[in-house]
Structure formats: structure tokens, C-alpha cells
């Protein structure tokens, strides 16, 4: 286990920028607006390869105990409580404030070592900025500029001097067997509530306010002997509704999470049915080719009539992903979670199934014999053989002649035939059609002799007389 270092401070002092600088990543969302970070975000600092440690970025403590600000402060305090060292980050440009005084007073009541970090000292008198915080009584005051990555060596040296050799922090491992599951959907459909329910703790801020989650937060889970990496993402709204730059960055992080996951769980709100934006979210998952499970949340609060209406909507509006399993759950009460995991396992198994060339070729032959391709301009496309071309999604490369003339209808027939033959559920299927080249296309034509040319002319004259 590695020791844990928590970044704590008021909003907009540069904690997320410092987190990215120490972890050499861009995992934390950074913006000039205060209050961008809300959930705890964990990463590993490996600037000293011999002594890595876990770093946790937290939201700013704004001095409010209600609403989102209060929930963010609660997350920050929870990180400080479990940390082996707290980095109290302040703004060197603005100087000490009453809110900084209150945060420091709270930290001193906790039995945790605290190191004062004065950020944003670039372009100003660094010594004057450090002297402004002398009244806090810290023997060592470290001046840094997170955006310019200056002062990090001195900060790292002081951190390592105060850290124990071992800690209790959980690290996101690189186990390839760990299944990566991303929870996607519109704002306020219950993604964070579901992840908290699965983890058994208030790991993410769950609120009725849409757009609470702004960053993609990953957490590891072990359940029934299997390992998972759960990724809670920001809600995706229509482009016309997105105005703030922060939300645009959040959507980019969500799309990155879709690309990196193995199974995408798209969550719908049973009370609102299937909206146009839900289909757009499903389209993003299809474009990435990821395994898909549709989770209809808040099912427990619907009457029998409402459930019947939702079932009809699911069948009508989600016909383009009829191969995806639909699971009815309640994230708040935990019902339907076992069925959800079973659907995730089936989708993952189908998306990562290994095929051989012989069985894919036999499947193509069987599909062609059962329903031959239609005639196009007097010619019939021929499917000769096939071989696997990749997984997640399962990809099949089909070779033959005149395959460019295959209609979209016949391609869907092949997809349904393969899905039924190999019992594939919860995953899209892709086909790559390659034309077999004519071995004689580059061979030069034999020139006609004078006798053959004369004979050809006589034949043409005879045809014209007739």
C-alpha cells in the first residue's frame, strides 16, 4: 500500500492544476471558474520512482454546509481525514483570507501533518507572498507555480520527508483482467447514486441538481471474485443546451471514458421515458463500438401503467439497439443490481469472444446458402471466406467478389445471422468487406495479328448488313 496525500484548500487556488503537475497527467478538469472540482479524484505521483504516493484532488471548501458546496466540502474533509499528509494549498496572489483561516483551524483539530503550499507565485514577489502567510506559524512554506511547474522539486522533497514508508491508500492497478465499466447518460439519471451503491460508500456526490458530476471519476471494485473499474461520468446534454466551457470539457472527458471502457452502461430515467438525447448518447456508444447495457433507473417509483408505457417506448425507440439487454433497476434502493451485473458479464463475454477462421468461414457459407445475395446489374456478389478481424466489438473480415454492391439490408442480415449463430448479446458487430483482386487485371492483352484484324473487319461488315 502507498501513503496518501490530500490537496485541501478553498476554491480556485490551483489544486487540480497542482494535481495534474504532480501526477503528470490531465486527469483533473482545470478551469478558471471556481468550484469546477467536486468529487475526489485519485492519482499516483511517480516523480520519485523509488517512493511513489497516492495524491487525491478535492473540491474547494467554500465555507457553506448546504447544497453542492456543502457536499463538496464534505468530500474534501473525508479526503483529509484519511490522508497521511495534507497539502494546504493557498493563493499567493490574493494572500491570506478569512476562509483560509477557517480551513486551517479545522485542519489543526485533526491529527494529521499539514504542509503549507503557496501557489501562483509566478510573476510576483515570491518572498513577499510567502511572508504574507507567516502568521499561520508554519516553519516551512513552499512556494510553487502549478501552471509553470516551478517549485515542484522542493515540494516533492518536503512531502517525502513527512510521509511514512507505507500507507493504506488503494491504487488503481493496471490489471488487464479488470473489467472497465463506464456509466453514461443524461444529467440527473442516477449515475453517481448507482456507483455509490455499488461501492458501498459516498464516493461520488449525488444530488438532484442536474450536472453535479463534472469529471470522469474511476474507482475499483471487487464483487463475487471478479474485479471491475467503475467510471462515473458527467451527463451529456444536447449541444444547443451546452454553453459553459466547463461542461464542454466534461463531455470530452465522458467521450474519452466511452472509448476507454469495455462495457458502457447507458442509464435512462423511467419517469421520463426514452428521450431524443438518450438516443444520442446511445449513438456515441455505437460509434465507439463498445458493449452496451441499457439500465432503466427509478423503476421502483413507477405504477403498473407507467411501466407498461415505458416498455412500449423501449421497444419502439430502441429498435436500433434491440440486441442490447434492458435491465430495470433502482439505484437508490439497490434493486435489480444482480441482473445488471449478469447483463454486463454477458455483454463483455460476447464483445471479447475469440473466433477462428474456419468457424467464421462456415458461418458466411451457411448465411449465403440460406439466403444468397441479390442480383445487382446482372451479377451476383460472392462471399468466399471470412476471418476474425478484432474484438470489442467483434469484427469479421469477409472476402469475395463484387462485395461493394452488397446492400445495407443484406449486411444487416449477415449481422443478425452471426449474432444468432454465435449467441452474441449486448455488443455491436462490424463487417469489413474486401474485394478479391483479379489476378489477370495487370496482364497485358495479346495484340491481334493482321489476319485477325482483317477477320474482325469482315465480321463487323457482315453484322452491319444484317
Shape: elongated
Sheet of most strands: 6 strands, mixed
List the secondary-structure elements in sequence, H or E: EHEEHEHEHEHEHEEHEHEHEHHEEHEH
Order of strands across the widest beta sheet? 2-3-1-4-5-6
Structural class: alpha/beta
Mean of residue pLDDT values: 85
Uncertain parts: none
Radius of gyration: 30 Å
Number of helices: 13
Strand content: 15-25%
CA distance, first residue to last residue? 96 Å
Q: Percent helix among the residues?
A: 25-40%
Strand runs, count: 15
Itemize the secondary structure elements and their pairings.
Layout: E1 4-8, H1 15-23, E2 41-45, E3 53-57, H2 67-82, E4 85-91, H3 98-108, E5 114-119, H4 126-131, E6 141-143, H5 152-162, E7 179-185, H6 191-199, E8 217-223, E9 226-232, H7 245-260, E10 263-269, H8 276-288, E11 291-297, H9 304-317, E12 325-328, H10 337-351, H11 357-370, E13 382-390, E14 395-401, H12 408-421, E15 430-435, H13 450-465
Parallel strand pairs: 1-3, 1-4, 4-5, 5-6, 7-9, 7-10, 10-11, 11-12, 14-15
Antiparallel strand pairs: 2-3, 8-9, 13-14
